[in-house]
Amino acid sequence: MSSKIKIFIVAILSLCGINTQAQFIYFDSLYDSGLNINEEIASEALEEYQLGIYSVISSSANPFALGQLYYFETASDGHRIKEILIENDIPGRHYAKNLIIISDSLALTASSFTDTIGQKQKSLTQFNRYTGEVIWRKYYGSLLNADYCAHFIKTYDAGYAITGQSVDSVDAQINLIKTDSNGNQQWENYYGGVGYESSRSLIQTPDSGFMLLGWTQSFGQRKIYLVKTDSLGNQQWQRTYASGGTSSGWGIIALEDGNYLLTGSSGDGSGNSKGVLIKVSPLGDMIWSKDYTYQNLSGNNLSWSKELNDNSLISVGMTHDNNDAGFLIKTDSAGNLLWQRRYNKNNDTDLFYSIIETSDGGFLLGGQARNVQPFNQDAWLLKVDSLGCPYADCTVGIDEQNKKVLVDVYPNPASDLLNVELQENNDYDLTLTDLQGKVIYASTTLSMTSTIDVSGFADGVYLLTLQNEEQRTTLKIIIQH
Helix or strand or coil: residue 11? Predict the structure, then answer.
């Protein structure tokens, strides 16, 4: 068989969604603790490759009683195979934040804790993954203040660092707590000005210091706020970003090139918001900043991002129309949008807090989906493929309910010239990308009939996207010489 025929067969299989290896597994699952009036949230999910499972930390808040941390595991198809309630030692509510797997039998989670008389503290809990037995639990913060936990990490010295907010009668500040490997507090520091501040995430830097990301109201309207400390938590510098309106920073990650990516929302001063990605240097200097909205909707927020192997970026959050919906975008390394998707589960308050890249090349999104009944919210896990599709052969990068572009593209496969014939006399931007998201052709001056010379492009499967402010369609194109 000639090499050209082999390439053609592989391309046809890709176009038809046929995988010659194991079939990709999609799932869209809600998880409930068993009481309909409880509100569950999947704060973070981790994939354990050798075990072939997803491990999830969640919390269940009952507005009429107590709340509970719980840990569950799912199989690769999202089927729940284990659920463990984590013991409460003091009556109250724990709100899970994130999870660290310590061993096959032990895990650690951070949470905000409110006891039955309203005192609020941060906590770390190490627990047995088989039984839910608490190995140790430590509480942090003054009982005179209201202390909230946002995020924690394992530090280079095998201890932990926790960040969040501490609120007294007149002010709220970011705080950072450093512990040893058993959760014993070593030091605590506070950051901010005369107004309210809060952090949402932290990262340890190569010099053993920390960067804390959140928001501040000490410099006018609420702005994204980044604080850098040394290894003992002493502040070295602070920066603010996105000053057009009410803005918030949510997630910070280190990039392969040594810089950092900030994820959050940027207000416009009139109550609307856009998702925002900001790339900064190790000194906090802005390299670039990009805003994102879904189909011109007014409320958009990005919670967390990941850098992929090709240095492209994937980010998750929410977008708002009549109801909140999950929001997923992919950009290139410079923040240029490649595709975006919106997901509704219950047509109510649906959103995502976390994202991981899975070993099969897809993504697992974790968050919440609220039902229309009061106090009825379930933890939500959605498994999508590398193009954000929640099921096989979906239209790439759009909400399926949106109006599609009427277009004929031929021949497909194409070897020399690819014809694009529009059925509507509208203005569209056209891009042709490979499956890694690299743009290989773009045009903003389409006529009703256009021709693209593809003779110089490598054989393979490509994505042709046509879009304007109201419409977007993506088609799979094969180039085969």
Answer: helix
Q: Are 114 and 100 in contact (CB under 8 A)?
A: no
Return the CA Rg of the chain: 24
- Domain of residue 466 covers 3-16+403-479
* Sheet of strand 197-204, all strands in order from the earlier edge strand to the far edge: 197-204, 210-216, 223-229, 235-241
Burial of 219 (0-12, 13-18, 19+ CB in 10 A): middle
Summarised one tens digit per residue, pLDDT across range 399-434 is 433 344 567 788 888 889 998 887 667 788 889 988
457: domain CATH number is: 2.60.40.3080
Q: Which band of pLDDT confidence, cut at 50, 70 and 90, is reported for residue 278?
A: very high
User: Taking all residues of the chain, what is their mean pLDDT, rounded to a whole number?
Assistant: 85
CATH code for position 336: 2.130.10.10
Q: What is the tens place of the pLDDT at every residue in 429-449?
A: 889 988 777 889 998 878 778
CB 333 within 8 A of CB 305: no
How far is CA 333 from each of CA 68, 138, 258, 389, 433, rounded to the nearest angstrom?
40, 40, 13, 21, 14
Q: Is 333 helix (H, G, I), strand (E, B) or coil?
A: coil
Number of domains in the chain: 2
